[in-house]
């Protein structure tokens, strides 16, 4: 084909894209930026460490030794109940049932632990029946009893919550005044990380339990993130 004999000079961009080195740099940049962003992305703020739990060893509903050693490496939610409780325990146990359903997708990363405050009544067999009644998955939800002094050391000194003595109280049942027995104890849910640090105390309100679920996710995800 005839031309006018004029050769068009290439501009800078055309010169660059004709070089193999340009495409090498482009490809490296294109694929490295997402990786850099992923690595440098910050996790949400760390939950505060409120206190360190002492080591403890109690007895589960199967009559086996169970305590901080068996829970090492797992995030867990603790609460405090007794099986003959005439007041708040049924509500607290119902909330733990709901939590059990919400954490089931996390497998063995999260555990639930219910400590009795009435070890004289709540022997392993009693706790076993109570756990069955409330559909506790034994791989997730553990019920603990033991010697009174050991439970007091764990609950009062360790978790820093109340565990009172058995008291006679008057109650109203179907319009009649009856005598019942109650034990003053904490109604808090306590979040513990995999190294035995208390990371939060929560009420059994919907708002607080939703916050608890978020915080459980933060601890589990931070642990998984730190592995990579």
UniProtKB/TrEMBL annotation:
Name assigned to this protein: SCO family protein
Keywords recorded for this protein, A-Z: Copper, Membrane, Transmembrane, Transmembrane helix
Domain Thioredoxin residues, every copy: 47-188
Family per similarity comment: Belongs to the SCO1/2 family.
InterPro entries in UniProt: SCO1/SenC, Thioredoxin-like_sf, Thioredoxin_domain
Organism (species): Halobacteriovorax vibrionivorans
Superkingdom to which the source organism belongs: Bacteria
PANTHER family per UniProt: ELECTRON TRANSPORT PROTIN SCO1/SENC FAMILY MEMBER (PTHR12151), LINALOOL DEHYDRATASE_ISOMERASE DOMAIN-CONTAINING PROTEIN (PTHR12151:SF25)
Parts of the chain that traverse the membrane: 21-40
Lineage: Bacteria, Pseudomonadati, Bdellovibrionota, Bacteriovoracia, Bacteriovoracales
């Amino acid at each position: 084909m005839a031309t006018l004999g004029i050769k068009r000079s290439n501009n800078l961009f055309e010169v660059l894209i004709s070089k193999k080195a340009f495409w090498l740099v482009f490809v490296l940049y294109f694929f490295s930026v997402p990786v850099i962003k992923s690595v440098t992305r910050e996790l949400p703020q760390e939950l505060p460490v409120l206190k360190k739990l002492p080591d403890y060893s109690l007895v589960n509903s199967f009559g086996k030794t169970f305590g901080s050693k068996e829970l090492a490496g797992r995030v867990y939610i603790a609460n405090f109940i007794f099986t003959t409780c005439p007041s708040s325990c049924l509500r607290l146990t119902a909330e733990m049932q709901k939590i059990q359903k919400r954490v089931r997708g996390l497998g063995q990363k999260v555990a639930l632990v219910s400590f009795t405050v009435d070890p004289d009544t709540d022997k392993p067999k009693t706790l076993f029946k109570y756990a069955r009644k409330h559909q506790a998955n034994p791989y997730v939800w553990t019920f603990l009893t033991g010697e009174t002094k050991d439970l007091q050391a764990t609950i009062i000194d360790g978790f820093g919550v109340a565990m009172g003595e058995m008291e006679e109280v008057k109650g109203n049942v179907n319009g009649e005044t009856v005598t019942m027995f109650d034990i003053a104890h904490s109604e808090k849910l306590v979040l513990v990380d995999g190294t035995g640090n208390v990371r939060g105390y929560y009420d059994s309100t919907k708002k607080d339990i939703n916050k608890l679920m978020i915080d459980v996710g933060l601890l589990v995800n931070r642990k998984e993130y730190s592995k990579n």
